[in-house]
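Hi there. Long-time user, first ticket. I'm pasting a complex I've been working with (about 240 residues overall). I'd like to know whether the download I got is complete or cut off, because the file seemed smaller than I expected. Thanks.
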Amino acid sequence: MSVRYRLPETTKLEISNGDWLLVKKRLTAGEYQRHLQLYLTTEHKVDGTLVGFSRVASYLLDWSFQSADGKPVAINGLDPKDIMTHLQDLPVEDFKEVLNAIDAHIEREDAAREAEKKGQGGENASSPISPSLATLGGDMNGSMNLTEMSTA
Amino acid sequence: MHSLALNGLSGAIRWGYHVAAAVTAWTVGRDDAQALRLSGRVDQVNTFRLSQRPLVFEAPHAKGAWRWPIEELQIRDGTLSARLGPKE
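Hi, the file is complete. Here it is re-exported in full:
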């Protein structure tokens, strides 16, 4: 038997200009389901242009970003769908920086999880729910890895 | 309860970053044994998350939020009573 449920932990990611992102360390199955839902159209087709936004919105809990008038842009406690609308108003280069930071975080967590599994006798350990969110296309032009959909 | 108490309309019990229950009409004060006590009404309860530990009571204020660890928790008929640890 093993511990499957984990305390929902957060990590603070430092990015440029002294800004930070507070992100979920790992997604739960429900959060992952929500991530998938956020890039499906009402016809249940994948809108690849939303994959990166959905991924960021699913992980992001808070940030230090300010609006043009210097006031904090509050996202703490918002639904991922609402966080997505905030992300969509960011300049492209700023969104890409956030996306890259979160993708790097996901890669680190996946590597840590793999190392953890190996430490537990690894080869026979069950597969994670997500093969690797970091394998998704991180760009904004619609590319994506359909493996993710097949695991939903 | 002591006469000095904090009151609020909304707050939350959190397990990590997850909301385990929304708390309304809450009061934090000291009981006769000088222990910090939380009382209020709970709403939108997630029973699994409430069963997990550690839990924290979070009360928003103008510049952020106060957080207290929950040391003991009882919920009956939507009414919450908890013993809190020192504010984080």
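A couple of notes from our side: Chain B touches chain A at residues 15-18, 52, 54 (CB under 8 Å). The mean pLDDT of chain B is 94.
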